[in-house]
Structures are given as C-alpha cells and as structure tokens.
Amino acid sequence: MSFADHTIRVRVPGTSANCGPGFDAIGLACTVYNDLELTLKKEAGVKITISGEGAANIPCDGRNIVWRSVQYLLRKAGLLDQYPGAVIHMENNVPLSRGLGSSATAIVAGLKAANVLIGNRFNRRELLQFATDIEGHPDNVAPAIFGGFTVSTVTRGDVECFSFLPKFRMKLIVAVPDFPLSTRKARAVLPAQVPMADAVNNISRASMLVAALCKGNEKFLRNVFDDALHQPYRAKLIPGMYDVFAAARKAGALGANLSGAGPCLIAYALERRHCEEAVGEAMKAAFRQHDVEAKILIMDLDTRGAHIVK
Q1: Domain 170-299 - what CATH class?
Q2: What kind of fold does domain 7-165 have according to CATH?
Q3: 128 annotated among ligand-binding-site residues
Q4: Is 103 annotated in some ligand binding site?
C-alpha cells in the first residue's frame, strides 16, 4: 500500500517541564498549540513552509527538526528509501526558545504525523521512546504526546511515563519575556554535582507535588514548587525571576517556577478562585521593575496530547 501524496494534519500542545522540583522528570501540557501538515512523497526533496512563531528563524531545509523526526520514524519503519521526500507546513503558536517545549512539539509532530501516514505502526509508548532519543530527555516530549501531567523515568535508555490529570481544575499563567534563552546556554550554568540537602529538597517536593495533584489536596501545594537544583543557577539569566514568583503568589497563585529552561515563568492557580488575570498582571509588573517586558498567556491544562485534526 502506498501512503504517498496523502496529507495529514496533527496538533501538538506546548509543554512546561520541571514544574519546579521535578527537574528533567515532571512535565505538563498546556493549551497553546503547533499544527503540522505532512505529505510524504516518493520523489526526493523536501518543501517546508512555516507561519507564526519563529517563522523567520526555523530552517526550511534538511536541518529542520520536523523533517529530521519524520525521517527518523521512516527509518525505524524501514520506509525511508520508499519516501525520500515530503511537503511540510508548520503553523506555530508556541513561542520559540522560551521554555514552552517548542522543539519537543516539533519532534512529536513529525513523529506523530509520519506514523499516522504509514498506518500507525508504532504505539504511543514507542513514539515516546523515539522522541526521547531525538530530544535527549523525556520531560517535554512526554506531555506533548500524552497530555496532562507526566512523570518520566529513563532506565538504561528505556523510557517509562506515567500520565495523570489533577483532581482539581487549574489555570496556568505564563509570563513570556521579550528575550529568548537557548536550552544549551541554560544547561551550561548548571553544576555537575549538588549538595545532599538540595537533592533531598527536590525529592520531597516533587513527591509531594504529584501526591497532592493526584489526591486533590490543594493545601499541600503551597511549598512544593520550590527548587534547589536548577533555578538558583539560572536566576542570573532571567532578571527579576524570584520577584516575579513572589508577585504571582501575592496575587493568589499557588506557586510559580521557571518553565523548562526558561526564560518563561509559569504560575499555577485554582480555576475556582478566578485570580488568573490578577496573577498575570502582577507577574508582568514585577518583570517591568527589572526592565523586562513580558506578555501573559493564560492557559488550561491540555488533556489530549498530540492528536489528528480532521
């Protein structure tokens, strides 16, 4: 059966990794999306068009991460020689290099779309493994695939992921600063070793975070977003970071943390308290005190993950 010249459209949510203390382990999917249209071709060559976020900065040749992910999946299926070309159109709403999983979104979109076009030969667990192999860690690609909150582990290269939805409805308030920050630069400031007390701090809080979300016990969320493994070292890259956290909490948020490697900062609020607008304005004002302009995204938790758009 030939899958050439069939077009599929997939939608993938942006993500926020770490969620405070869950460094490289916990992630969530949020309601900002990138769409991808993919057509596989039997003729060599790739045509890539991009609209929206990052359109002027994303390569439209063989370096494009969507195309590389498509090729990765076709290689795994033994079909790379059969479909050496493609037509790709990307519609991006996830901010680029801001800590909302734009690269993970692209990887998952390429894998998901190619998999659908070849008859869904691989299940979601296999797609997670492929995406982690490409990205290097699962904390962003897992929620992009499964939606909701995810907890991931890697054992001798094999990825396992537990996905769940919290017992209460949350609002996610993201302050997007007007400057990018590459993951490579954000990782370069991290130490090779950390004190035992800092490791214990994160283990206890990450465990409490997952337990409180699963049980729906909001009172235990007040102190769980504090981190000692990456935020203290990355703070110098994001002016006013801790002041923005404090402003968000004062305005009614449960807590706030660095989104992924940054520079986006994300705050969490209970939907029933209707404080998300006030939290966003407080975060924006706190950033402005440090000469940083930021736009505010108020989102829900995405519950579907990557899916086909009819």
Answers
A1: alpha beta
A2: Ribosomal Protein S5; domain 2 (3.30.230)
A3: no
A4: yes
What is the per-residue pLDDT across 246-255, written as a single tens digit (0 to 9) for each?
999 999 999 9
Q: What are phi and psi of 15, to 5 degrees?
A: -140, 160
**Does residue 97 have a known ligand-binding role?**
yes
Do the annotations mark residue 98 as ligand-binding? yes
Q: Express each pLDDT in 63-117 by its tens digit.
A: 999 999 999 999 999 999 999 999 999 999 999 888 899 999 999 999 999 999 9
Whether residue 100 is annotated as binding a ligand: the answer is yes
pTM comes to 0.94
Annotated binding residue 297: no
Q: Residue 169, annotated ligand binder?
A: no
AA identity, residue 123? N
249 appears as a binding residue in the annotation: no
101 is in an annotated binding site: yes
Domain ranges of the chain: 7-165, 170-299
